Amino acid sequence: MIALLLTLFACETETACTELAAASLTLTLTGAGGAALVDPVVTYTVDGVDRGECTSFQEGSYTCGYEERGHFVVTASATGFETGTVEADVAADECHVIQEVVSLELEETACTAEVVASALVNLSGTGDEILEQSWVKFQPDGGEVADCSSADGYAWTCGEDVTGPMTITAGASGHQDGSTTVDVQLDEAGCHAVTETVDLALEWLPD
Protein backbone atom coordinates (compact mmCIF):
# COMPACT_ATOMS: atom_id res chain seq x y z
CA MET A 1 0.00 0.00 0.00
CA ILE A 2 2.77 2.42 0.93
CA ALA A 3 4.69 1.53 -2.24
CA LEU A 4 1.61 2.24 -4.33
CA LEU A 5 1.12 5.65 -2.75
CA LEU A 6 4.76 6.58 -3.38
CA THR A 7 4.42 5.52 -7.01
CA LEU A 8 1.27 7.63 -7.45
CA PHE A 9 2.93 10.63 -5.81
CA ALA A 10 5.95 10.36 -8.11
CA CYS A 11 3.67 10.27 -11.17
CA GLU A 12 1.75 13.33 -10.06
CA THR A 13 4.87 15.43 -9.42
CA GLU A 14 6.82 14.44 -12.57
CA THR A 15 7.26 17.45 -14.86
CA ALA A 16 6.22 17.06 -18.48
CA CYS A 17 8.76 19.03 -20.54
CA THR A 18 7.86 20.27 -24.01
CA GLU A 19 10.17 19.90 -27.00
CA LEU A 20 9.73 23.54 -28.03
CA ALA A 21 12.99 25.48 -27.69
CA ALA A 22 12.65 28.45 -25.35
CA ALA A 23 14.11 31.85 -26.20
CA SER A 24 16.87 32.87 -23.81
CA LEU A 25 16.41 36.64 -24.00
CA THR A 26 14.12 39.05 -25.79
CA LEU A 27 15.00 42.70 -26.34
CA THR A 28 12.78 45.68 -27.10
CA LEU A 29 14.89 48.26 -28.93
CA THR A 30 13.88 51.90 -29.45
CA GLY A 31 15.44 55.23 -30.34
CA ALA A 32 15.38 58.11 -27.87
CA GLY A 33 12.08 59.94 -27.96
CA GLY A 34 10.61 57.37 -30.32
CA ALA A 35 13.09 58.20 -33.10
CA ALA A 36 13.16 55.65 -35.91
CA LEU A 37 16.16 53.30 -36.11
CA VAL A 38 17.41 52.48 -39.61
CA ASP A 39 18.84 48.97 -40.04
CA PRO A 40 19.94 48.46 -36.43
CA VAL A 41 22.44 45.70 -35.67
CA VAL A 42 21.96 43.70 -32.45
CA THR A 43 24.56 41.16 -31.30
CA TYR A 44 25.12 39.25 -28.08
CA THR A 45 27.67 37.31 -26.07
CA VAL A 46 27.17 34.57 -23.49
CA ASP A 47 29.76 34.32 -20.73
CA GLY A 48 32.11 36.39 -22.87
CA VAL A 49 31.75 34.24 -26.01
CA ASP A 50 30.50 35.92 -29.18
CA ARG A 51 27.22 34.34 -30.30
CA GLY A 52 26.49 36.51 -33.35
CA GLU A 53 23.38 38.51 -34.19
CA CYS A 54 20.02 38.36 -32.49
CA THR A 55 17.02 37.62 -34.72
CA SER A 56 14.09 39.92 -35.30
CA PHE A 57 10.60 38.80 -36.30
CA GLN A 58 9.00 42.21 -35.90
CA GLU A 59 10.31 45.76 -35.83
CA GLY A 60 11.92 46.72 -32.55
CA SER A 61 11.82 43.21 -31.06
CA TYR A 62 14.82 40.85 -30.97
CA THR A 63 15.39 37.30 -29.77
CA CYS A 64 18.88 36.47 -28.54
CA GLY A 65 19.58 32.76 -28.30
CA TYR A 66 17.53 29.65 -27.66
CA GLU A 67 18.12 27.35 -24.70
CA GLU A 68 21.35 29.20 -23.89
CA ARG A 69 22.02 30.09 -20.28
CA GLY A 70 24.63 32.27 -18.61
CA HIS A 71 25.58 35.94 -18.52
CA PHE A 72 24.28 37.76 -21.61
CA VAL A 73 25.63 41.06 -22.93
CA VAL A 74 23.56 42.50 -25.77
CA THR A 75 24.95 45.32 -27.93
CA ALA A 76 22.84 47.41 -30.31
CA SER A 77 23.92 50.01 -32.86
CA ALA A 78 22.26 52.09 -35.57
CA THR A 79 23.34 54.94 -37.83
CA GLY A 80 22.89 58.27 -36.10
CA PHE A 81 22.73 56.77 -32.61
CA GLU A 82 25.18 55.94 -29.85
CA THR A 83 25.91 52.23 -29.36
CA GLY A 84 24.13 50.79 -26.32
CA THR A 85 24.46 47.63 -24.23
CA VAL A 86 22.32 45.76 -21.73
CA GLU A 87 23.17 42.77 -19.55
CA ALA A 88 21.14 39.95 -18.02
CA ASP A 89 21.67 36.55 -16.38
CA VAL A 90 19.65 33.72 -17.92
CA ALA A 91 18.90 30.72 -15.67
CA ALA A 92 17.07 27.47 -16.36
CA ASP A 93 14.62 25.10 -14.68
CA GLU A 94 14.47 21.33 -15.14
CA CYS A 95 13.15 21.72 -18.68
CA HIS A 96 14.10 24.99 -20.34
CA VAL A 97 15.83 28.31 -19.86
CA ILE A 98 13.85 31.01 -18.07
CA GLN A 99 13.47 33.78 -20.59
CA GLU A 100 14.76 37.23 -19.65
CA VAL A 101 12.97 40.29 -21.08
CA VAL A 102 14.97 43.51 -21.38
CA SER A 103 14.69 46.86 -23.14
CA LEU A 104 17.22 49.32 -24.52
CA GLU A 105 16.87 52.90 -25.75
CA LEU A 106 19.60 54.32 -28.00
CA GLU A 107 20.57 57.96 -27.65
CA GLU A 108 21.00 60.06 -30.79
CA THR A 109 24.55 60.96 -31.73
CA ALA A 110 25.50 64.57 -31.08
CA CYS A 111 26.94 65.69 -34.43
CA THR A 112 29.61 68.38 -34.63
CA ALA A 113 29.05 71.62 -36.53
CA GLU A 114 31.96 70.99 -38.88
CA VAL A 115 31.30 70.74 -42.61
CA VAL A 116 32.96 67.91 -44.52
CA ALA A 117 33.71 67.96 -48.25
CA SER A 118 31.93 65.26 -50.21
CA ALA A 119 34.74 64.79 -52.72
CA LEU A 120 38.33 65.92 -53.15
CA VAL A 121 39.39 66.00 -56.80
CA ASN A 122 43.06 66.00 -57.81
CA LEU A 123 43.04 67.41 -61.35
CA SER A 124 45.93 67.01 -63.76
CA GLY A 125 46.85 66.63 -67.39
CA THR A 126 48.38 63.53 -68.89
CA GLY A 127 51.85 65.11 -68.76
CA ASP A 128 53.59 67.95 -67.00
CA GLU A 129 51.53 70.65 -68.66
CA ILE A 130 50.02 73.51 -66.71
CA LEU A 131 46.24 73.47 -66.82
CA GLU A 132 44.72 76.78 -67.79
CA GLN A 133 41.11 77.90 -67.26
CA SER A 134 40.37 74.66 -65.46
CA TRP A 135 36.99 73.96 -63.85
CA VAL A 136 35.29 71.16 -61.93
CA LYS A 137 31.57 70.64 -61.35
CA PHE A 138 29.54 67.98 -59.57
CA GLN A 139 25.96 66.78 -59.83
CA PRO A 140 24.31 64.64 -57.13
CA ASP A 141 22.04 61.89 -58.38
CA GLY A 142 18.75 63.64 -59.18
CA GLY A 143 20.16 67.03 -58.16
CA GLU A 144 21.43 70.16 -59.85
CA VAL A 145 24.91 70.82 -61.22
CA ALA A 146 27.10 72.85 -58.83
CA ASP A 147 30.61 74.28 -58.94
CA CYS A 148 33.49 72.80 -57.01
CA SER A 149 36.03 75.17 -55.42
CA SER A 150 39.81 75.37 -55.67
CA ALA A 151 42.62 77.68 -54.59
CA ASP A 152 45.18 76.53 -57.18
CA GLY A 153 43.22 74.91 -60.02
CA TYR A 154 44.51 71.44 -59.21
CA ALA A 155 43.00 70.43 -55.85
CA TRP A 156 39.21 70.83 -55.84
CA THR A 157 36.57 70.27 -53.17
CA CYS A 158 33.07 69.33 -54.21
CA GLY A 159 29.94 69.49 -52.06
CA GLU A 160 29.43 69.95 -48.33
CA ASP A 161 28.12 66.84 -46.59
CA VAL A 162 26.32 65.78 -49.76
CA THR A 163 26.01 61.99 -49.82
CA GLY A 164 25.01 59.41 -52.39
CA PRO A 165 26.00 58.93 -56.04
CA MET A 166 27.36 62.00 -57.81
CA THR A 167 28.96 62.71 -61.17
CA ILE A 168 32.10 64.86 -61.24
CA THR A 169 33.02 66.58 -64.50
CA ALA A 170 36.16 68.62 -65.21
CA GLY A 171 37.74 70.55 -68.06
CA ALA A 172 40.58 72.87 -69.00
CA SER A 173 41.66 74.89 -71.98
CA GLY A 174 43.02 72.67 -74.77
CA HIS A 175 41.86 69.49 -73.05
CA GLN A 176 38.96 67.11 -73.41
CA ASP A 177 36.43 67.13 -70.61
CA GLY A 178 36.69 64.23 -68.19
CA SER A 179 34.16 62.77 -65.78
CA THR A 180 33.75 60.10 -63.16
CA THR A 181 31.07 58.90 -60.75
CA VAL A 182 31.51 58.34 -57.02
CA ASP A 183 29.19 57.13 -54.29
CA VAL A 184 29.71 59.22 -51.16
CA GLN A 185 28.88 57.39 -47.95
CA LEU A 186 27.59 58.71 -44.63
CA ASP A 187 29.86 58.11 -41.64
CA GLU A 188 28.92 55.58 -38.98
CA ALA A 189 27.61 58.30 -36.69
CA GLY A 190 25.20 59.45 -39.38
CA CYS A 191 26.60 62.98 -39.17
CA HIS A 192 28.90 63.74 -42.07
CA ALA A 193 29.99 62.60 -45.49
CA VAL A 194 33.03 60.35 -45.84
CA THR A 195 35.15 62.30 -48.31
CA GLU A 196 35.86 60.51 -51.59
CA THR A 197 39.25 61.23 -53.19
CA VAL A 198 39.31 61.29 -57.00
CA ASP A 199 42.29 61.52 -59.36
CA LEU A 200 41.16 62.90 -62.70
CA ALA A 201 43.61 63.29 -65.62
CA LEU A 202 42.51 65.29 -68.68
CA GLU A 203 43.56 64.27 -72.20
CA TRP A 204 44.74 66.80 -74.79
CA LEU A 205 42.25 67.74 -77.47
CA PRO A 206 43.05 65.93 -80.74
CA ASP A 207 44.97 67.95 -83.31
Would you mind describing this structure in some detail?
The chain has one helix at residues 2-13; strands at residues 23-31, 41-46, 49-53, 55-58, 61-66, 70-77, 84-90, 100-106, 117-125, 135-140, 146-147, 149-150, 155-160, 164-171, 178-186, 193-194, 196-202. With 207 residues, it is mainly beta. The protein folds into two domains: 19-106, Sandwich (Immunoglobulin-like), CATH 2.60.40.1120; 117-202, Immunoglobulin-like (Sandwich), CATH 2.60.40.10. The strands form four sheets. It has a five-stranded antiparallel β-sheet with strand order 11-10-14-15-16, with no helix packed on it. A four-stranded mixed β-sheet has the order 4-5-1-8, with no helix packed on it.
Class of the largest domain in CATH? Mainly Beta
Mean pLDDT: 92
CATH architecture of the largest domain: Sandwich
Give the radius of gyration.
30 Å
Number of helices: 1
Measured between the Cα atoms of the first and last residue, the distance is 117 Å
Helix content: under 10%
Strand content: over 45%
What is the strand arrangement across the widest sheet?
11-10-14-15-16
Shape: elongated
What is the H level of CATH, i.e. the homologous superfamily of the largest domain? Carboxypeptidase-like, regulatory domain
Q: From N to C, what is the helix and strand string?
A: HEEEEEEEEEEEEEEEEE
Derived from helix and strand composition plus strand pairing, the structural class reads mainly beta
- As for the CATH topology of the largest domain, it is Immunoglobulin-like
Compute the number of structural domains. Answer: 2
Low-confidence stretches: 1-12
